[in-house]
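Hello Y.,

Per our agreement to keep a running log of every chain we model this quarter, I'm adding this entry. I've kept the format consistent with earlier entries: sequence first, then predicted structure.
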Amino acid sequence: MIQLSDTNPSRLFIVGIRDTGLLAEERDLFKASPPGGVILFRRNINDEQSLRKLLHELRALVGPDGFLAVDQEGGAVDRLRELDGPRPSFEAVSAAGSGDPAATEAEARTIGLRLKDLGFDTNFAPVVDRAPATPGTGLETRYKENIKGEIFQ
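Predicted structure for the entry above:
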């Protein structure tokens, strides 16, 4: 685990990269000031072989305690669509399973095992997107009401 007492403040940041491979300037920057982690987005994922190569290189740069992250939720936020085909959103999985948490848990486990196999160690998937969406807000899957009626993210 990265400690706040680390001497290099760059270790406190999780950063993104521009392309499907590291640019020379990114590689040089990460060697000089390794970030605490790297998050990949769809723009960074082309095919499985290049993704595995990229994650291997990033692991060497961020070290064993650095994060290699992705936001793989399924539905509209499906970073692995090009590799594995489309995955349903957790909301769709829950609805298809009549709200049974076991269906959502099974989908989360499938995604987690796939990410681990590829070399990721962190997924920024939602953990509280359980209430029905409110159409037209633009925040349908991001803000939900808790049982006390308070809004939280």
